[in-house]
Amino acid sequence: MSDDSRTVPQEQLPSDDLHPPPMPVINLGHLNLDPAIRACVVEDITKACRDLGYFQIINHGISQSVMDGAVDAASDFFKLPSETKEEFASDDLRRPVRYDTSSKDGISMSRAYLKHYAHPLSEWVQYWPEKPPIYREYMGNFATEVRRVALQLMEAILEGLGLGKDYQHEKFEQGLQLMSVNCYPKESEGDTAIGLAPHSDYGFLTILFTSCRGLEVVDRNSNSWKVVQPLPHALHVHVGDHMEVLSNGKIKTVVHRAVLNPEEARISMASINGFAMHEKVSSARELVNEQNPEKYTASSFNDFLDYLTSNLDNKHRNFLESLRMQGA
Ligand SMILES: O=C(O)CCC(=O)C(=O)O
Ligand SMILES: [Fe+2]
């Protein structure tokens, strides 16, 4: 290894900047209390989405044992011999399950990940790893629960945007869920601290479980990286590209990255929630007017996969930029 390769560029160093309190924390249990309390929680969620694009949720109804079970299933999978995991390796982004050890961006080399569809579970679970034997059941339980939470949050945001909680209800109900299960080694001296390069997520909402600190988000007010400090038993939520499209830019997607933790190896599990594969997302008519003309071309998850496939070597794969209409 040359000396040069041991010098970590400044922009790849983890941020020391803990997200300054108050990082919004939403008590999701309050959504189901009386209408006046629900209205306040809807307002808090919508404000967090508009101002920051991310927040944490507590009292979300997913039990500790379901979360622990999924983490155990993920850790046990990543401990399997390479040959077993590589059965799932593929460059075909349309495979129902994909395993890889590094991204093609040349930055995030140390992450191992497994991506698979999860909704409807009965359709996809047959493709999931059979080893470890707990994987399908435990990850399936977590995926089902986390999707319930995503739908609940989506309804609240639609309500907060003035579209009504049942806006395009069937399309959300029938939408896809992609689980991105990530395993990062402990940071080792001299290596890049970046575990996953900056990106925004496809879909409306990502709900992320993280076993310890490592996620960073761009704070758009200061245009700097902020460390997300996970609260016990909380889940992190951030907005994806299609939320920006649907809201016609009222809510913005969140650029985020993962850095390696200097104390421990890390597991994260992201549930990415969108419309079905070929269902196009466009800006809500109700949010388009003369002052706010339509800003984005309609697109589907299938279009996103096409875009990724033709931009595999692009370090800044920015799907959303490709949708922005001229002059918008
Ligand atoms: O590991 C993390 O904290 C982030 C994971 C992530 O951004 C993703 O899987 O899209
Ligand atoms: Fe992400």
Automatic annotation (TrEMBL):
Coiled coil: none annotated. Keywords: Iron, Metal-binding, Oxidoreductase, Vitamin C. One of its GO terms (molecular function) is oxidoreductase activity. PROSITE patterns: FE2OG_OXY. Residues 1-21 are annotated as: Disordered. The keyword Ribonucleoprotein does not apply. Residues 171-278 form the Fe2OG dioxygenase domain. InterPro entries: DIOX_N, IPNS-like_FE2OG_OXY, IPNS-like_sf, Oxoglu/Fe-dep_dioxygenase_dom, Plant_2OG-oxidoreductases. Its cofactor is L-ascorbate; Fe cation. Belongs to the iron/ascorbate-dependent oxidoreductase family. PANTHER family: OXOGLUTARATE/IRON-DEPENDENT DIOXYGENASE. This is Fe2OG dioxygenase domain-containing protein. The lineage of its organism: Eukaryota, Viridiplantae, Streptophyta, Embryophyta, Tracheophyta.
